[in-house]
Amino acid sequence: MFLIGSHVGMSGKDMFLGSVKEALSYGANTFMVYTGAPQNTRRKELEDLKIPEAKALMAEHGIDQFIVHAPYIINLGNAVNPSTYELAVSFLDKEISRSAGMGSQVLVLHPGSHVGEGAKTGIKKIVEGLNQILRADTPVYIALETMAGKGSEIGSRFEELAEIYEKTVHSEKLRVCIDTCHMHDAGYDVIHDFDGILTSFDKLLGISQIAAVHLNDSKNPQGAHKDRHANLGDGYIGFEALYNVAHHPALEAVPKILETPYIPSPENPEKKVAPYKEEIAKLS
After folding, report:
1. For the segment 176-201, what is each residue's pLDDT rounded down to a tens digit?
2. What are the b/e assignments for 24-50, b being 16+ CB within 10 Å?
3. Is the pTM of this model over 0.85?
């Protein structure tokens, strides 16, 4: 089954129920959501999220899986500021519980940034944090996202993710989220050699470890290390290549999530609207 959706919001009186309604309005059969604003740690209690109502609506429309994205403020790779690192560990642990409580099995996480201390040190801290959190009975997979290599980001190369896997005690609780814009910006040839990318990934980590695909075009040329998403077909990757990624047979059962920018409304160009209904229709 072709699984396609986008990131959706969660706010107002409907909360998680509203997230499901938004996904359905786009014609999606999966989606990704943050448990709260990605820039802060403020979160509502699970009982306030209308989870039973949301699950009932999902079941009614045949949606049986969705993804949670951890907030950007989590940085397990920070070896400079102990309070930042400790916040990352404690809040990620809480996000795992919240994700499980909402009914998701996958929590996407930006691996972290070494903030000038070097990738070796950053990876060591990430592994340290994961080893504090992950247990044999952890109910959610942590899906490390492939990054663009902006600044001191870790995870722009598959080798870095493989090293995290190798050194994490409960690596069976890890997965990977591949992002087309990030891989392109990191230097991988998504346009002409996506099969080669998957071959390299398979040798290092295994295709079965891909738990999600973020499907985004890029505003920058290959290898730019910028991480600026573009709408499908409006960037340097192009629609054909992204369509081929979305429909690659090796990724058939993997949820594809759009994180493309909002676009000007046809009725009111000063207002921005989600492009997801149209983009999902083009990909389906």
Report:
1. 999 999 999 999 999 999 999 999 99
2. bebebbbbbbbbbeeeeeebeeeeebb
3. yes
